[in-house]
Amino acid sequence: MTRGRRNMKIYHSFKEVPNQARVLVLGHFDGLHLGHQALIQKGYEMAQKLGIPLMVATFYPQFQSLADPGFKYIMSQETKMKRLEDLAVDEVFSVPFDKRIAELPPEAFARDLLQKTLTAKGLVVGFDYTFGHQARGKAQDLVDLVAPIPVEVIPAYKCDGQVLSSTVIRQLLRQGDVAQVETYLGYPYQLCGEVIHGLANGRKFLVPTANISLPKDLLLPRPGVYAGRCFLADKPHQIFHSVINIGTKPTVNDDPFETVEAYLMDFDRDIYGERLCVRDLHFLRGITKFASFPELKAAIMKDIEMGRAYLAEKYKPMS
Questions:
Q1: How far is CA 249 from CA 129, 257, 287, 289, in A?
Q2: Are 121 and 13 part of one and the same domain?
Q3: 215 and 139, same structural domain?
Q4: What is the pLDDT at residue 98?
Q5: Mean pLDDT of 67-81
Q6: What CATH number has the domain bearing residue 194?
């Protein structure tokens, strides 16, 4: 559904928003899965028909992060903005979900925020959209509150019989089922970040790895060792077969913080400070604490052998 970039504008406060008619698509859009894309497509069609801009209105941080300190996002805010721009969204209204917004009655949310501040002349929401104090406002209530402004309520989006939601995507990521995640997202799942200095333990085994810096509130796939492919963000067509460790490193230290580090096969260049992306993940094994570094080294060599064989078969050239 990618339509190409069009200089999308992002507003981080109410006072930044120009006073002009627009179509609003409302939701969290974490992951921007196929269900989210269906909402945005409907908003795009409505905006084209009315001849006015399309705005996605969302909250960041989301309200879930206020209630649950351990809440993790499927995608970074930076990645979300890039994908929204690819979907031909003209504007994004993205502000923190705070106490003032949380306490707005549904009527005030619809009247003051949507109609007055954001100048909505058309609205698109999912069937399960809620709004206002204690989420008392439901999607159908919005239809009544903003009449005669047109409101499209999009039914549940199903893929292979599964109703899609960000919750389902999170469950699949925790299971390490990246292939199914990609089916529901409708685009390749990837992790991108700056290459930073690590502990350099990989160099001791002659398998130097690239440590990727990622937001701490980003949900990572199931901890383990994966076969996958990597590319530098400024050279997306140059792909490197890789073995990627996601999670902790219990043989090396007892740090509970999960990291992502990749060994790029047949690659030998300093890429510190560059942006590296990991994609096409295939789970090989779980995280294991080995009794010694020689055992760890042997396991790493086996991982590389398994990863190389899998990737060579998976991506062998077409004859």
A1: 40, 9, 8, 8
A2: yes
A3: no
A4: 86
A5: 91
A6: 2.40.30.30
For residue 167 the two structure tokens come to 């919750």
First to last CA, the chain: 30
Return d(Cα 230, Cα 263) in angstroms, integer: 9
The answer on 157 and 202 residing in a single domain is no
| Phi, psi torsion values for 200, nearest 5 degrees | 65, 25
Q: Any idea what the CATH number is for the domain that residue 49 is in?
A: 3.40.50.620
pLDDT tens-digit readout, 226-235? 999 999 999 9
CB 233 within 8 A of CB 278: no
Please give the tally of structural domains in the chain: 2
Q: What Cα–Cα distance (Å) separates residue 230 from each residue in 30, 148, 236, 244, 267?
A: 23, 50, 9, 9, 11
> Do 69 and 198 reside in the same domain of the chain?
no
Please indicate, yes or no, whether residues 140 and 245 belong to a single structural domain of this protein: no
Structural domain for 243, as ranges: 189-314
Q: What radius of gyration do the chain's Cα atoms show? A: 22
Structure tokens at 279: 């994609």
Per-position b or e across 289-319, b if 16+ CB within 10 A of its CB:
eeeeeeebbeebeebbebbbebbeeeeeeee
pLDDT tens per residue, range 87-97: 999 999 999 98
